[in-house]
Design goal:
309 residues, 8-stranded mixed β-sheet, 10 helices, disordered N terminus, AB hydrolase-1 domain-containing protein, hydrolase, signal, peptidase activity
Length: 309
């Protein structure tokens, strides 16, 4: 599967005139006296910066960056920009930590990892962030906590400002699903009913593209044994979390995105628009939680124009 996904990078990220450069590897991440490895992949050339690089933060917690592959389209537009993907620690191709206590996995940890990646890549003087779903939580927390001078634009795509609002939205949507799906979604990690139910739920409110993109399925599978690692997904990282009362501290120009049939329903997304000082909000009417798959061209145009402003 990994070989197939790597091959897809070279196919998806090619332009008619030339193949977009792809590089990557790992950077060391020192935290609480230990050293871990963060995997990253750059589409475009960080050595020839005509445009501010975009750091893409994947959702989860506990999945991988692969489902966000369409965002590399931004590296092959008429005004290309470098796009940086990475797998958060405990996920994907980064260091896995199955022996760690759930309490180890905190927002502090992941914000520190993001800051380290930006510093290690040498882009701290000028960069943009796009965080999807849980990645939007990290992007917003990073902006509020670190107040980075180099952060020029922040995009919060299909994200949440409060775990309580997210839970309320999920409960509403799950109640509309067939009983077998509802029961499967209540099953614990490791129960074979859970991935089946999640796939059915995702096909309605996660990504309606048919056939279901294999990159999306690959990322979702990262939390299910035996091929996946449920360590991060099972940690109570967002229990009781909210950023609503701190959103006024977000300094960069911000774009908020959701889909009309998104898990991030309007009431989940609205606090961003209501509390961030410089903000725009776009809803993709024919999308759910992944408009970058469902309305791909329109999504890239909206994001590209915002980042060029």
């Amino acid at each position: 599967m990994l070989l197939v996904l790597f091959a897809l990078y070279s196919v998806l990220f090619a332009t008619d005139a030339h193949a977009t450069s792809i590089s990557g590897g790992t950077v060391p991440f020192r935290y609480q006296g230990e050293v871990f490895q963060t995997y990253y992949r750059v589409v475009g050339d960080l050595g020839q910066l005509n445009r501010t690089p975009l750091v893409v933060i994947h959702g989860g917690p506990g999945i991988s960056h692969d489902y966000l592959i369409p965002l590399a389209d931004l590296a092959s537009h008429s005004q290309p920009l470098p796009v940086i993907f990475y797998d958060q620690i405990g996920n994907g191709r980064s260091t896995h930590l199955p022996g760690k206590s759930p309490s180890f996995f905190t927002i502090d940890l992941f914000v520190s990892e993001l800051a380290n990646l930006i510093q290690q890549l040498g882009i701290e003087g000028s960069f943009d962030i796009l965080g999807h779903s849980w990645g939007g939580v990290l992007g917003a927390e990073f902006a509020v906590r670190n107040q980075p001078d180099g952060l020029e634009h922040l995009i919060l795509s299909d994200s949440l400002a409060s775990s309580a609002l997210w839970a309320e939205s999920q409960e509403q949507l799950v109640r509309t699903m067939p009983r077998d799906v509802q029961e499967g979604l209540m099953a614990p990690l490791g129960d074979p009913r859970l991935p089946i139910a999640m796939r059915k739920f995702q096909e309605v409110h996660g990504c309606t593209v048919k056939p279901f993109p294999e990159q999306v399925q690959y990322s979702l599978n990262q939390v299910f044994p035996p091929q996946g690692d449920p360590t991060v997904a099972s940690a109570p990282i967002l229990q009781g979390w909210t950023i609503i009362d701190r959103l006024h501290l977000v300094r960069p120009s911000t774009l908020v995105i959701n889909g009309a049939n998104d898990i991030s329903q309007d009431f989940v997304t609205a606090p961003f628009y209501e509390n961030i000082p410089s903000v725009k909000w776009i809803t993709f009417e024919n999308s759910t939680h992944m408009p970058f798959w469902e309305e791909r061209e329109g999504y890239m145009q909206v994001v590209g124009r915002f980042l060029a402003a």
